[in-house]
C-alpha cells in the first residue's frame, strides 16, 4: 500500500470516529425523537464508511460485505423509525 494512501485512510478513520462520537452525544442528549433518529442514521452511515476504509486499508473484501449489511439494516431501521414517528405504528393492521 502506498504511504500516502495509508495516512489518508488513517485520517479518514479518525474523522469518522470523531463523527461517531458527536452523533452518540446527539443520540443521548437530543431534545426530540427526530434528532435521535438523525443521530442514529449518522451513526450507521459513519459505521458503514469506517468498514469501507478498513476494507481499503486491509485489501480484503470481508469489510465490504459487512458495510453492505450495515447499510441494509440501517436503512430498514431508519425507515421503520420514521414510519413509527409519523403514524405511531410500524406495521399497519
From TrEMBL:
<feature type="transmembrane region" description="Helical">
    <location>
        <begin position="62"/>
        <end position="86"/>
    </location>
</feature>
<protein>
    <submittedName>
        <fullName>Putative monovalent cation/H+ antiporter subunit F</fullName>
    </submittedName>
</protein>
<keyword id="KW-0813">Transport</keyword>
<feature type="transmembrane region" description="Helical">
    <location>
        <begin position="6"/>
        <end position="25"/>
    </location>
</feature>
<keyword id="KW-0812">Transmembrane</keyword>
<dbReference type="InterPro" id="IPR007208">
    <property type="entry name" value="MrpF/PhaF-like"/>
</dbReference>
<dbReference type="GO" id="GO:0015385">
    <property type="term" value="F:sodium:proton antiporter activity"/>
</dbReference>
<feature type="transmembrane region" description="Helical">
    <location>
        <begin position="37"/>
        <end position="56"/>
    </location>
</feature>
<keyword id="KW-0406">Ion transport</keyword>
<keyword id="KW-0472">Membrane</keyword>
<dbReference type="Pfam" id="PF04066">
    <property type="entry name" value="MrpF_PhaF"/>
</dbReference>
<dbReference type="GO" id="GO:0005886">
    <property type="term" value="C:plasma membrane"/>
</dbReference>
<keyword id="KW-1133">Transmembrane helix</keyword>
<comment type="similarity">
    <text>Belongs to the CPA3 antiporters (TC 2.A.63) subunit F family.</text>
</comment>
<keyword id="KW-0050">Antiport</keyword>
<keyword id="KW-1003">Cell membrane</keyword>
Amino acid at each position: 500500500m502506498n504511504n500516502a494512501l495509508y495516512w489518508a485512510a488513517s485520517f479518514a478513520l479518525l474523522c469518522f470516529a470523531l463523527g461517531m462520537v458527536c452523533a452518540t452525544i446527539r443520540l443521548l442528549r437530543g431534545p426530540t425523537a427526530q434528532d435521535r433518529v438523525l443521530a442514529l442514521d449518522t451513526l450507521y452511515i459513519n459505521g458503514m464508511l469506517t468498514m469501507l476504509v478498513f476494507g481499503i486499508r486491509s485489501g480484503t473484501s470481508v469489510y465490504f460485505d459487512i458495510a453492505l449489511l450495515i447499510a441494509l439494516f440501517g436503512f430498514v431501521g431508519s425507515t421503520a423509525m420514521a414510519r413509527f414517528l409519523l403514524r405511531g405504528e410500524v406495521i399497519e393492521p
